[in-house]
Amino acid sequence: MPISHNRTNIDGVMVSTDHFIGGERVPSDDTFEVRSPLDWNRKLADMSRGNADIAERAVSASVTGFRVWSRLKPQERNDLLFRLADLIDARADDIALVECLDMAMLLESLKLRLIPRGALNFRNYAQLVAEHQERSWSSRGTQNRIIRDPAGPAVVITPWNAPFMLSTWKLAPALAAGNAVILKPAEWAPLSASLLADLVDEAGFPQGAFNVVQGFGGEVGAALVSDPRVRRISFTGSPETARLIGVAAARNIVPFTAELGGKGPLVVFADADIDAAAKKAAAQFEDSGQVCLAGTRLLVESSVRDRFMERFVHHTQAHVCGDSRDPATTLSAAIHPEHLARVEDFVERARENGDRIVFGGRRVFDSKLWYEPTLVEPKSNDSEIVQKEIFGPVLTLQTFGTEQQAIKLANSTQYGLSGIIYTRDTARAQRMGRAVRAGTVWVNTFLVRDLSAPFGGYGISGIGREGGDYSLDFHSDLKTLQILDGSVFGPA
Ligand code: NAD
After folding, report:
1. What domains can be seen in the chain, in order of their start residue?
2. Whose Cα sits closest to atom 13 in ligand 1?
3. The pTM is what?
4. DSSP 135-195
5. Phi and psi at residue 19, in whole multiples of 5°?
6. Residues near 253 by Cβ (< 8 Å), separated by ≥ 6?
């Protein structure tokens, strides 16, 4: 039972500030400060700052952990995954509170939706592995069988938005497939990963099967992804970082998946339920717009523009900026002053470019981290504000006359993560669903996702697919076993 060297008390929840390597808490001499976006004057923790030595130690531990973990029976691994899911459920309130203080997501949403979803990810993958049947068939005088072998140590690198849930989405299939993992959470929101390490320890995982290293991407992150002993890399973050990780992965011929940014269209046809569409459009401001899947480009059929705008303004005005722990709050703070400055710069450049700021475009009450819901009507579809991911509470509004124009606008950026369509016409729903180039397209809804469905992006929104069997295949070395018919005897 490892004793934590350094813990900090965050509103009654004890959080280790050390790495978790080989089943032990490991401190670094160097640390980095974590502040709360809910009150930037409040320091939450000094976290251990990993470097190349820590990365080396974590990879070595994961190699040892892999030997044990990969040789357990799937049922033994599954028992531990189910146990971990139960422990997450039991500590959901603590994890939600710490994550809320760490990165400002709405507390209710974390408690009710995202943390339970994290537990579900572990259950779901344990179940999927338990139900898995190796595919076999005969052809050309042989028996063919497809076998999944655990691939080796996997590195999981996550961003600062919804970090707990997003990490479990990757950790669960990696572990269920039999791989040891090293999780490197984002330096702006590292705390919930440390709580997860406590739960893994409590569940009784073998040492080194699950490791967490804290620190900056360019330091410990870059060292992890460059280590040739790492056999899978699963990354969520920006396209810029994905390019760097891709180069490291290519050097070692290591498969990697990348879930990247988005600039999703939210298309509203005249035949749609306009109030429902406008309400969903206003909901894109939630979590301060820091949602990769958000429909940030509103594309509205010209004939219903005024009707849509009246309802959209109505629903936007209902937002309440404030402390994410308050159930009345619907619009949370930005993660970090540097990030908000980036969002502000986008809007300032849009102003200079001649794009029209319809509403918003300022900080709320001159606060450090809250930004008004902002709508921009671009001068042209080439405007930066339309083409680049902002990751803040900033939407653009454009109109179209025909379905063909809507498709052209929807598909006019380099991204392709998600799309949202509002229409009541079945045939149009099918046509648009097929025509919009994105990994996930929702019609008359948003963010509903079956865990067995593939998830990922077209274009610069990603490489590879995660979810269900897609993740298990990614984390496995797939083998084809062919046995000549009639050449072997005895029970199989
Ligand atoms: P980021 O790319 O800056 O950082 C993501 C992670 O990569 C962090 O843990 C960071 O420390 C690490 N990192 C940075 N440089 C590295 C390097 N050289 N080597 C290894 N690791 C490195 O992204 P962010 O700002 O944390 O997150 C926001 C981005 O993530 C947005 O673009 C958003 O759309 C995207 N995102 C995508 C999804 C999705 O599922 N597609 C989900 C959430 C967020």
Report:
1. 7-260+461-480 (3.40.605.10), 264-443 (3.40.309.10)
2. 217
3. 0.96
4. -EEEETTEEEEEEEEE---EEEE--SSSHHHHHHHHHHHHHHTT--EEEE--TTS-HHHHH
5. -75, 170
6. none
Instruction: Please give the radius of gyration of the chain, using alpha carbons only, rounded to the nearest integer.
Output: 24
Q: Is the CB of 272 under 6 A from ligand 1?
A: no
For residues 491 and 75, give the distance between their C-alpha atoms in angstroms, rounded to a whole number: 23
User: What CA–CA distance (Å, rounded) separates 277 from 423?
Assistant: 9
Catalytic annotation present for 259:
yes
Tell me the CA–centroid distance for residue 251 and ligand 1, in Å.
Answer: 20
Question: Which pair of tokens denotes residue 123?
Answer: 């259950």
Residue 457's nearest CA partner among 436, 482, 484 is 436
Tens place of pLDDT per residue across the chain (492 aa): 444 469 999 999 999 999 999 999 999 999 999 999 999 989 999 999 999 999 999 999 999 999 999 999 999 999 999 999 999 999 999 999 999 999 999 999 999 999 999 999 999 999 999 999 999 999 999 999 999 999 999 999 999 999 999 999 999 999 999 999 999 999 999 999 999 999 999 999 999 999 999 999 999 999 999 999 999 999 999 999 999 999 999 999 999 999 999 999 999 999 999 999 999 999 999 999 999 999 999 999 999 999 999 999 999 999 999 999 999 999 999 999 999 999 999 999 999 999 999 999 999 976 679 999 999 999 999 999 999 999 999 999 999 999 999 999 999 999 999 999 999 999 999 999 999 999 999 999 999 989 899 999 999 999 999 999 999 999 999 999 999 999 999 887
166 CA to centre of ligand 1 in angstroms: 11
CA pair distance 58, 458, nearest whole angstrom: 33
85 lines ligand 1 (CB under 6 A): no
Q: Write out the two tokens for 272.
A: 């749609």
Q: Are 456 and 259 in contact (CB under 8 A)?
A: yes
157 lines ligand 1 (CB under 6 A): yes
Mutate to test the pocket of ligand 1, among 166, 184, 259, 292 (most ligand atoms within 8 A of CB): 292
d(CA 297, CA 267): 8
For ligand 1, whether the C-beta of 292 sits within 6 Å is yes
Ligand 1: residue whose CA is nearest its atom 9: 186
Q: Is 292 a catalytic residue?
A: yes
Ligand 1 neighbourhood includes 244 CB (under 6 angstroms): yes
Quick one: the chain helix, strand, coil %, rounded to 5? 40, 25, 35
Largest CA distance in the chain: 80
